[in-house]
UniProtKB/TrEMBL annotation:
Membrane topology: Multi-pass membrane protein
Source organism of this protein record: Roseiarcus fermentans
GO biological process: amino acid transport
CC annotations in GO: plasma membrane
Highest taxon, organism lineage: Bacteria
Segment forming the signal sequence: none
Name of the protein: Amino acid/amide ABC transporter membrane protein 1 (HAAT family)
TM regions (residue ranges): 29-47, 52-72, 78-101, 110-131, 166-183, 212-231, 251-273, 279-304
Family that this chain belongs to: Belongs to the binding-protein-dependent transport system permease family. LivHM subfamily.
GO molecular function: transmembrane transporter activity
Length: 318
């Protein structure tokens, strides 16, 4: 009875007695969730175009952020460095299409999966060669990202909103919404879905695989850059940052691998859920819930709805 009280009654009582702390926790979870959704979006875009999970998305985020910071360290003005980094990500997209994807058209999914692993380790090695392995600081001031905090009087207490978190959430929401509309309502979006369904059939009706893949990988690269900037601003920019991309896995399981709205909803569920779990239930388990709760939620979804909330349920007839 004491255990049930501690698990189900005490946390709810804390939420009711201190609504300002609840609001603070939900806000922090919301910001993390939006950034998780932005990471997951990169995975969704490439999966929709190639039908394979892109293991390189996490290192693309790190590589983009390191390129930006590395150029700034060489004395390149911040906004020129940002433009050059975008150009580098376009070059990466062209290189992946020409050297990796084009020779593997119509190959089994496992071949493409292994190819993305190869891209991952190439970028790790190349990135360490060029930028070194030491953590770097994100150029937040040079990019005119805000600092400081806003204190709101709310629910009889105070809720602190970091200005950087507000900017990150706003930019991420705009990017996610814009990309969702672009890929759902435009001709390129329809072509992307055709490529994901069947490479050979898409080719037969005039869809250019090389153009679609370059567009999608470049878009995923820009998303990775934006994600790297904001996660790098919250911590240091280093190769350890790619661990954050692993949180995209439960997000994708919840939302569905083929759904842009699913990435958004899944990110918010994971972000808010892990913050609430850490703050209200963490003390019962000695803390650390935030590092594994997302995977437990994903496991439950796999058992009862493996295609995710918005994923397509595929039935193959034999």
């Amino acid at each position: 009875m004491d255990l049930l009280h501690a698990v189900f009654v005490d946390p709810v009582a804390q939420m009711i007695s201190a609504p300002d702390l609840l609001a603070q926790t939900v806000w922090e979870g919301f910001v993390a969730g939006v950034l998780y959704a932005l990471i997951a979006l990169g995975f969704v875009l490439i999966y929709k175009a190639s039908g394979v999970f892109n293991f390189a998305q996490g290192i693309m985020m790190v590589f983009a952020a390191l390129t930006l910071v590395g150029l700034a360290e060489k004395g390149v003005p911040a906004w020129i460095a940002l433009g050059l980094t975008i150009a580098v990500m376009y070059g990466l997209a062209v290189g992946v299409e020409r050297l990796v994807l084009r020779p593997l058209v119509n190959q089994p999914d496992i071949i493409l999966l292994m190819a993305t692993l190869g891209v991952t380790y190439f970028l790790i090695g190349f990135g360490e060669l060029v930028f070194g392995g030491n953590p770097k600081s994100m150029i937040t001031k040079e990019l005119f990202l805000p600092s400081g905090a806003i204190n709101l009087a709310l629910f009889g207490g105070r809720v602190q909103l970091q200005k950087l978190d507000i900017a990150a959430a706003a930019i991420a929401i705009v990017m996610v919404a814009g990309l969702a509309v672009f890929f759902q309502k435009t001709r390129i979006g329809r072509a992307l879905r055709a490529v994901a369904d069947d490479h050979q059939a898409a080719l037969s009706v005039g869809v250019s695989l090389d153009q679609i893949w370059v567009i999608v990988w470049f878009t995923a690269g820009v998303v990775a850059l934006a994600t790297g900037i904001f996660w790098g601003a919250r911590s240091d920019v280093s190769f350890a940052l790619q661990v954050v991309s692993l949180k995209a896995l439960p997000v994708l399981i919840l939302g569905g691998l083929t759904s842009v709205p699913g990435a958004i909803v899944g990110g918010l569920i994971i972000g808010v859920g892990e913050k609430l779990g850490e703050f209200y239930w963490g003390p019962l388990l000695g803390g650390g819930i935030e590092s594994w709760l997302a995977y437990i939620i994903a496991l439950v979804f796999l058992l009862f709805r493996p295609q995710g909330l918005f994923g397509e349920k595929i039935i193959e007839r034999i």
